[in-house]
Amino acid sequence: MAERIVIVGAGQAGGRAAEALRAAGNVGEIVLFGEERHRPYERPRLSKSVLAGEEPAATASMHPQEWYAAHGITLRTQLRVEAIAPKSRAVITADGERLEYSKLLLCTGSRVRPLPGAPDVAGVHYLRTVEESERLAGGLQPGRRLVVIGGGFIGLEVASSALKRGLEVTVVERQRALLDRVLPGQIAARVAALHSAQGVKLRLGAPVERIQANGSGNGGVKSVELADGTQLAADIVVIGVGIIPNTELAETAGAASNDGIVVDEHCRTTLEDIYAAGDCTNHYNPILGRRVRLESWQNAQNQAIAAAHNMAGKPRSYAEVPWFWSDQLGTNIQMVGVAEPGMDIVWRGERLAFGLLDGRLRLALGFNMGGEIRFARRLIEARAQVSARRLADAAVGLRDLLTEATCSASTP
User: Fold this and answer.
1) In sequence order, which residues have a C-beta less than 8 Å from that of residue 53 and are 6 or more positions away?
2) Cβ atoms within 10 Å of 309's Cβ, excluding its own
3) Which of 58, 96, 127, 223 is buried most, with the most CB atoms less than 10 Å from its CB?
4) Between β-strands 98-100 and 243-245, what pairing exists: parallel, antiparallel or unpaired?
5) How far apart are CA 102 and CA 89, in angstroms?
6) Which residues of 341-366 are buried (b: 16+ CB within 10 A; e: fewer)?
7) Distance (Å, whole) CA 146 – CA 139
8) Is 410 a residue whose pLDDT tops 60?
9) CA 194, CA 70: separation in Å to the nearest integer?
10) Closest among 125, 169, 177, 178 to 151, alpha carbons compared
11) Kind and range of the H or E element at 8?
12) Using one digit for the tens of pLDDT, what is the confidence trace for 183-236?
């Protein structure tokens, strides 16, 4: 069989992998399978500019349809790959087709985590796909009451877009702080203050008991009842309580999995010639010194590119400082690194925060501070020992701290 690379998952990771394979010089056949009807697109716009009504969902597409044919990539949408046969090196699709591969890349992504007991009625939404974004955007009418269940980044971006469109917005979070899973409390409190100052109502430490519908039929949503009995009137409810990595296809085929498909630094799974990239993977990050599963634009794109180069015979380790951004209420929030238990939090003014662990910079978050975040990212990458006092001193440039750390590391 002539070389054929099969990519399962036509989201951002799958699309970027196909693109990178051609850029790396691969001239073999590439087949890209996707369950959605859309060609590969990037999801961040769906909760930001698309939901705010500032641009159509089509702008999220990575390439026009003709680009795939022009680059010899067979794009097969609305078709699910049901199984992998590793011994015979083939995938089996939902319609029974058996397609052999030379190498296989799994970019199966993730799916929304459902809220137990949530009714399937008009006005109750999840946000993951183009259709879900368009459906939700159609209901965001001025004066309506929106309750967002989940105080993570996706929930806060929905709250921001809805407030911009004139809705009355309440965010409900079962933990006592927003962004509890990804940020230390001191920094998360600053994000909460940003929302409160602009009129978003926050109900923290408030588990949801049930979502109540109007009438006995599909008359839409009526309210959200909290565990303490509080009733929050609602015309629209958005549920954003996390995602679940799509690992089942790999697991059934025999690949190792642990909160994501286990891959090595070259994006290889434990099955021969099967690779994986994006939200669905659990990889070792040498900069952090531990395994992580990341849900971000950066990881979906850059891990997929690394996987493509490795599949094309051009070895490349995937080792990057995690980076994430979010646009909320006119503020660009950028974060590099990850939160760790026991961090010392250091503020530089009101808009830049750092997390230190054993004297090393491990986390930085900025509010409209993209330029400074670039240097913080390089400090984390350098595993720099940084003085908390100098880090807090705005008169000491982060560029200077980076130069000092680099010089110190190169001194015998």
Assistant:
1) 137, 140, 165
2) 23
3) 127
4) unpaired
5) 7
6) eebebbebeeebbbbbeeeebbbbbb
7) 10
8) no
9) 46
10) 178
11) strand 4-8
12) 999 999 999 999 999 999 999 999 999 999 987 666 799 999 999 999 999 999
Runs of H (alpha helix) within 24-103: 44-47, 65-70
Mean pLDDT calculated for residue range 78-86? 98
d(CA 296, CA 278) in angstroms, rounded, equals 8
Query: What phi and psi, each to the nearest 5 degrees, are found at residue 22?
Result: -70, -40
Angstrom distances, CA of residue 102 to CA of 244, 262, 275: 29, 20, 12
Task: Round to whole Å and give the CA distance between 105 and 82.
Answer: 15
Compute the mean pLDDT over every residue in the chain, rounded to the nearest whole number.
95
- Bridge partner residues of 168 (DSSP): 145
pLDDT tens sequence across 275-329? 999 999 999 999 999 999 999 999 999 999 999 999 999 999 999 999 999 999 9
What spatial distance separates the first Cα and last Cα of the chain, rounded to whole Å? 54
SS3 193: helix
| Pairing outcome for strands 145-149 and 236-239 | parallel
CA–CA distance from 78 to each of 56, 83, 357 (Å)?
21, 16, 46
CB 320 within 8 A of CB 162: no
In 3D space, the residue among 214, 32, 193 whose CA is nearest the CA of residue 105 turns out to be: 32
The pLDDT score that the predictor gives to residue 403 is 87
Residue 249: C-alpha distances to residues 10, 254, 262, 280, 394 (Å) = 15, 9, 13, 11, 50
